[in-house]
Write a structure and sequence with these properties.
This protein has 468 residues and is an alpha/beta fold. It contains 19 helices and 16 strands. The protein has a six-stranded mixed sheet. Strands 9-6-7-8-16 form a five-stranded parallel sheet, with helices on both faces. Bound molecules: pyridoxal-5'-phosphate.
């Protein structure tokens, strides 16, 4: 499988190079040159497979030429062995044709584990083959950092440094990062905001000499391998509910558009999906786009669903590339206008076609709490604020049809957001057993000023230790 950049100017690469590159050199994102696709009989043979078996079937075409099937099988088995539910991504029925898929049974209790647990192992595998190491540096406002640390801890070829804004992440979120005692993991509490953390990381990556010296890398949500691994659970849900003989639609609480783009990929690969429903919080740039065809940035407002407090959905460029007929120059033009002026207007024809598949619905904090409350009282299902927005979007869409199934994705465990859950439902959710002692585990973190030179010295000292 070969991959092309959405801006059309970066070299065409194989899977392993795309994995390590993250962003393409022309500023674009990598996508498969063409979608692998499964026929209806092939999809029928997926019924009854375990999650790891299905994962190998679905991802095999994407890694062709880089990993053998045996290598992929071993990595996948290891990646999902630590998940705490035997079904990995269980489905729960909320109504006659409405389901919720729980994507929070991984080590950090959010859906990002489903991709990152595999991506950390893919990095190690490819780097071992090449005799290389990387230093991953990232900033987090909460969820991503812990999932990235869990995916990289104890990997031989990877060092990871995660910055978080001191005193501005929740205690559960901080402890999920700082109680990891592996020697290749460092947590830095920055005297500043999340934006300061991100600016520091950007400054490191902008220093080409430093980047090359330490082989800096990122595991952020634009990495193709993350999208690839997320396609699997769309197949898992759809096949369990009768695909390809039944239409299965999805509702997805959305921030960077990575998760729902994986649903789009699943459709391209042959799943009978008629509708992809995007749920937004007050930061509703995507919902406004699907309503009006124009993407326009506004300031970010903090909400009860912080992992969706995003101004620009970076994976959206992959969708633009598809609907502009793989015209890299046109993508570059539109993205350039967006970067300069904060507005992206899709050509009317392309937008109309997008609307046949996508729609968006927004929920402010009051509506999110109301959705959590009414769901808990009607079905007993206690959901976190992000997941509740997914279900609420499904209900609002009017697409719950008698002849199709609709699956809303639950992206975080309620215990990650206990205050909001308690406020909405009166129930304070407890951490699952494997994390029950989180508040007793020792923490390890270092404080650092908002200073790029100090950060560089720190990263050089830490990564240098491993290389010595
Ligand atoms: C990251 C995250 C999201 C948003 O997912 P995207 O792929 O960025 O759209 C939603 N919910 C939770 C809990 C998350 O951690």
């Amino acid at each position: 499988m070969k991959y092309v950049s959405t801006r059309g100017k970066a070299p065409v690469l194989g899977f392993d190079d795309v994995l390590l590159a993250g962003l393409a050199r022309d500023g674009g994102l990598y996508v498969p040159q063409s979608w692998p696709s499964f026929s209806e009989p092939e999809i029928r043979t997926m019924r009854g497979l375990s999650y790891p078996e299905l994962a190998v079937r679905v991802m095999r075409p994407f890694v062709e030429g880089c990993l053998t099937e045996d290598e992929l099988t071993a990595l996948v088995a290891d990646a999902y062995a630590g998940f705490t539910h035997p079904a990995v991504a269980p489905l729960k029925q909320l109504g006659r044709n409405l389901w919720v898929m729980e994507l929070f049974h991984g080590p950090t209790l959010a859906f990002k584990d489903y991709a990152l647990q595999l991506v950390g192992r893919l990095f190690d595998h490819v780097l071992t083959k090449r005799g290389q190491r990387v230093t991953i540096v990232g900033a987090t406002s909460g969820d991503t950092g812990s999932a990235a640390i869990e995916s990289c801890r104890d990997r031989d070829r990877v060092d990871i440094v995660i910055l978080h804004p001191k005193g501005r992440v929740s205690e559960v979120q901080r402890r999920q990062m700082t109680t990891v005692q592996s020697s290749n993991v460092r947590n830095l509490a920055v005297d500043g905001t999340f934006d300061d953390c991100q600016d520091l990381v950007k400054e490191l990556f902008a220093d080409a000499a430093f980047r090359d010296e330490l082989n800096l890398s990122a595991v952020n949500s634009i990495n193709w391998a993350r999208v690839m691994a997320q396609v699997v659970y769309y197949f898992h849900a759809a096949v369990s509910l009768g695909a390809p003989d039944v239409t299965v639609d999805f509702a997805v609480p959305t921030g960077n558009f990575g998760n729902v783009f994986a649903g789009f990929a699943a459709k391209m690969m042959g799943l009978p999906i008629d509708r992809l429903i995007v749920g937004s919080n007050t930061n509703d740039i995507l919902t406004r786009f699907f309503e009006g065809g124009v993407m326009k940035t506004e300031g970010v407002v903090p909400t009860l669903s912080p992992s969706m407090d995003i101004q620009v959905s970076s994976n959206f460029e992959r969708l633009v590339f598809h609907y502009l007929g793989h015209d890299g120059e046109a993508v570059e033009r539109l993205m350039g206008e967006f970067r300069r002026g904060g507005t992206l207007a899709m050509p009317q024809g392309a937008w109309s076609v997008m609307r046949e598949l996508f729609e968006g619905h927004r929920f402010d904090d009051a509506a999110t709490l109301a959705a959590m409350r009414s769901l808990a009282s009607a079905t007993g299902e206690v959901l976190d604020p992000h997941s509740a927005i997914g279900v609420a979007a499904a209900l609002k869409s009017g697409h719950i049809r008698h002849d199709a199934q609709l699956v809303a994705l639950a992206t975080a465990h309620p215990a990650k957001f206990p205050d909001a859950v308690e406020q909405a439902t009166g129930i304070r959710p407890g951490l699952p057993p494997h994390m029950a002692d989180l508040f007793q585990r020792p923490e390890r973190l270092e404080a650092i000023g908002n200073d790029a030179a100090a950060l560089k010295a720190y990263v050089r000292g830490f990564a240098g230790r491993a290389r010595a």
